[in-house]
Amino acid sequence: MVTLLHIDSSVLPGEASASRSVAAAFRTAWEEQHPEGTVIYRDLAANPVPHITADAWSAGYTAPSERTPEQSAAFAAREKLIEELEQADAILIGAPMHNFSVPSTLKTWLDNVLLLGRTAGESPSARSTPTVVVASRGGSYAPGTPREGFDFVQNYLEAVLHRTLGLDVDFIIPELTMAPRNPAMSELIPLYEASRKRAFEDATTKAKELAERLAA
């Protein structure tokens, strides 16, 4: 049986969140292909993981037999997150843009799972795991737009997930999600609707393609 690690980080619930909605469409299509599979789900907004501490960080570079009780206790929670990453056959991450970057809860999760010599380094333990990131944003940061260069979500996640953790990363980007709620963006609603439609189609397609790839 295959295992999907699904992570949401939007502070908005349900359909109010573009990243959650599109990720949910991916998961639904995935579960249709793998009805007996396992889904490990973490809602980082509802249940944030602990910020990494000095004990949790230093324990990662200390032999288990040499750790202090404080280090062992702090690393236990971190180890669980790392093991979930390593056990996954595929990863799905909802990563909305918050103030031009990722939510702090997602950054905290990444701080916990990134461990040089294990998940990062010459032979990352989760290397090549297919990973789909739903990176939603209220506006558009594409080349030629007024805020081109303000996107610190996709570049950051590409660097951490692909270049550091070695994951095989693919992005789905629903944009202009604020258009229906911001009168100043009303003329952009058709572009928003097209982006939303494309994102849901991509989610379903990528889930089915990935399921077939893993079954081969």
From TrEMBL:
Residues 4-164 form the Flavodoxin-like fold domain. Pfam families: Flavodoxin_2. The keyword Oxidoreductase applies. Its EC number is 1.6.5.-, 1.7.1.17. The keyword Cell cycle does not apply. Its cofactor is FMN. InterPro entries: Flavodoxin_fold (IPR003680), Flavoprotein-like_sf (IPR029039), FMN-dep_NADH:Q_OxRdtase_AzoR1 (IPR050104), NADH:quinone_OxRdtase_FMN_depd (IPR023048). It catalyses: N,N-dimethyl-1,4-phenylenediamine + anthranilate + 2 NAD(+) = 2-(4-dimethylaminophenyl)diazenylbenzoate + 2 NADH + 2 H(+); 2 a quinone + NADH + H(+) = 2 a 1,4-benzosemiquinone + NAD(+). It is an enzyme of class 1 (oxidoreductase). FMN binds at S10, S17, A18, S19, S136, R137, G138, G139. Binds 1 FMN per subunit. Signal peptide: none annotated. Keywords: Flavoprotein, FMN, NAD, Oxidoreductase. Belongs to the azoreductase type 1 family. Homodimer. Also exhibits azoreductase activity. Catalyzes the reductive cleavage of the azo bond in aromatic azo compounds to the corresponding amines. PANTHER family: FMN-DEPENDENT NADH-AZOREDUCTASE 1 (PTHR43741), FMN-DEPENDENT NADH:QUINONE OXIDOREDUCTASE (PTHR43741:SF4). This is FMN dependent NADH:quinone oxidoreductase. It comes from Streptomyces asiaticus subsp. ignotus.
